[in-house]
Amino acid sequence: MRSATLRKEPTPMPDVIDAIVKVRGISKNYGDVEALRGIDLDFPRGKLTSLLGPSGCGKTTLLKIIAGLVNADAGTVEVNGKTVSKPGPERAFVFQDFALMPWATVLRNVAFGLELRGKPVAEREKTARHYINEVGLSGFEQKYPHELSGGMRQRVGLARALSVDADVLLLDEPFSAVDEQNRRKFQEDLIRLRTNQNKTFIFVTHSIEEAVYISDRIVLLSPRPGRISQIIEPEIDRSVDPDRIHRDKHYLDTVEEIWQGLKQYVD
Amino acid sequence: MASIRTEGEAIGLAPTGLAEGRSWQDNPTLLRLISVVLFAGIWQIAGMIPVSFAFPTFLDTMAAFFSMMADGSLPKAYLSTLQPLILGVVLSAFLGVGLGTLCGLWRTGEWLFIPVFIVLQAAPVAAFIPMVTFIYGIGMTAKTLAVMILALPVIVLNTYKAVRNVNFSLISMCQSFLGTRWQVVSKIILPDASPVIFAGLRLGVAAGFVGVVLAELLITPTGIGDLITFHRSRADYAEMYATIASIIALSTLTLVALQWIETRVFRPEKRGA
User: Fold this and answer.
1) Which residue in A68, A162, A228, B17 has a CA-CA distance of 20 to 30 Å to B204?
2) Quick check: A117 pLDDT over 60?
């Protein structure tokens, strides 16, 4: 395992050769509160980038601006070279509270993105079944969300986002409502899925361990106003046994380093 | 209670019928039957005491019911009552849900209509019935309107509240997966609001029954209202009670049917729960 590449610049703008999402000068205020100020950020294609920071640093706001669910006060977001301001087919969102329709089965929930796009029933259910299998929920197609555990519900949310075949998956603290054991399992599955699916992931989390464990690139945000304070690329070999990563010295050092950097912002 | 099997029972709620190893207490059909038999029994005893000379026994009432069915007076009365009732209730349901949804989604509509319905709901609406008669006479229109002024406010207000309180996260989800405005309304807002909308519909339908009986007692002596008045004036108390009981039974059956439609069509996840 190699050492982490730490970049500490006043206005961090690291070289990204192939950026799928480009954020330029994004600012957002909620009334008097300045949520984000002048964010410039590139997200490399095919990688998992985490937005990490204490609560109130605007990480979810930034993700929702990229998703087109929240309008920025200033700045632009480019996806695949095109400026976007609304949700689009190249992006799919995974919600913190799962956002599953309680009246619909797992199958219909997963196929919902395709249903909205007017795909025929047979076709969308075939795709949905494929991704239900992919996230390990085969056999639960006809269950309703209230019959599933938190972890399983979020798997449905992930399958729904995968089945619309977007280039970029936006995940808003997807594991925060999932218990610790399921969260670990889910993180391992996410690492596996990422290798298989060849998609770009943008992942919001407040857990340092989670960010270091799964990310190719971690963007640290500082709060009030939300700004980029540091970008870290933990070069951890994830092909080894997942349990070994958690005991790895390099993993632990990176976690510690991020904590030292974030400590000042915690009140 | 033999043992505690569900979380609901642990905090003292009635059993849901989902638990394993059911005892006779968990059999809903049997419980309902026992409840009906008990009610009929108490009625019979109260009639035999008698509580009042104007209070017939259960069996006398049932006999009166069948004789009125046989001589055709009850079916004839229902034929006349059901027309304004069904028309009024169906109109109120569609108009109420439509208007309530509109007010929930559209600010201007909210300002225009909601205060009117809040006032209507608070007002003793039965007092308007003579006014309706004054304007529309004593025909079908007046009776239908009587049903609607009682049924509409509660349906509109419930729908409006339900639409305003829809889970915002689901709307966001629908938008992020490229749902159009119309898809957001039809696939998210209405299904998510449907339990509260149906609660409003049940209250509205019950109010519609009140409206039609009031109209027949106050406006035109026809149908069920007339049958009640007629038998009261002749002191045929068994017949009078049979008429009243029959309309209560019909109202109850309608509400049960409405609940059945709700769980079948709109919220299948609540089936059996």
Assistant:
1) B17
2) yes
* Distance set, CA A49 to CA A22, A23, A210, A253, B229 (Å): 13, 13, 12, 19, 78
Mutation for A interface: B170, B175, B177, B269, most A CBs within 10 A: B177
**C-beta atoms of A99 and B192 within 8 A:** no
Sorted by where each begins, the domain ranges of chain B are 7-55, 62-270
Domain membership flag for residue A206 = no
- ipTM, two decimals, is 0.87
Which one of A69, A115, A145 has the shortest CB-CB distance to B175? A69
Instruction: Answer yes or no: is A265 within a domain.
Output: yes
Strand pairing class (A227-233; A5-7): antiparallel
Alpha-carbon dihedral sign for residues A117, A120, A121, A123: negative
Give chain B's residues under pLDDT 50: 1-2, 19, 273
pLDDT in tens, B234-267: 988 999 999 999 999 999 999 999 988 888 887 7
Inter-chain CB proximity A103 and B169 less than 8 Å: no
Pairing label, strands A217-222, A48-52? parallel
Residue A4 included in any domain: yes
Question: B252 with B206: CB under 8 angstroms?
Answer: no
Question: For the segment B107-131, what is each residue's pLDDT rounded down to a tens digit?
Answer: 888 899 999 999 988 888 778 887 8
Q: Which fold has domain B62-270?
A: MetI-like fold (1.10.3720)
* CATH number assigned to the domain comprising residue A23: 3.40.50
Q: Is residue A127 part of a domain?
A: no
- Its pTM surpasses 0.95: no
Domain count, chain A: 1
| Domain range for A38 | 1-90+216-267
